[in-house]
Specification:
The protein is α/β, with parallel strands linked by helices. It contains 5 helices and 12 strands. It comes from Streptomyces tremellae.
Amino acid sequence: MRAAVAQAPEAPEPERGYRDTHTPDDRVVDLLAENLDDYRAVVHRCAAAGLPALIARLLGERGSTSVAVPPGLPEEWLALAAATRVPDTATPAQLDAVGSVVTGCAVAIAETGTLVLDAGPDQGRRRITLVPDHHICVVRVPDQVVGGVPQAMPRLDPTRPLTWISGPSATSDIELDRVEGVHGPRTLEVVLVEG
């Protein structure tokens, strides 16, 4: 058997002519916003200069007096926020008392309305995005937005802990009544920031 296989010619590389997206580049950001909205995420758009004021306003409207912060979150993002900063090394009890979390993301997928976090410096440990009831995720557009999942995969390191988020945490009971906040934040706010 091995002798027969050893004599066989090298198998040709299969042709892969499928599309890696169905969305034109000039539509990905708008499609991402539409799909996030369909998943009941709250979508905001702003320029980079307006980001600190927007985050401060969102935390204030939520009444968050504390916010979980990844170690590499840009300082200027929270420059105007009055909330106490809690590091991603907080204990479970400390995290349970946190009102909100602010993170960046690794990549956002327009066609599925999905945010992918990879525990990068501006995203922190996975648990900070699963315990607080309110998550503000900042997406740099258009740089971090791709059309389809095949475009996202080369941007991700499979050895890192990946969290794929499509809207706020939700599930349905046996009668199909939707219940939010079961396995993560009840409220997801996504800020699409340009510049």
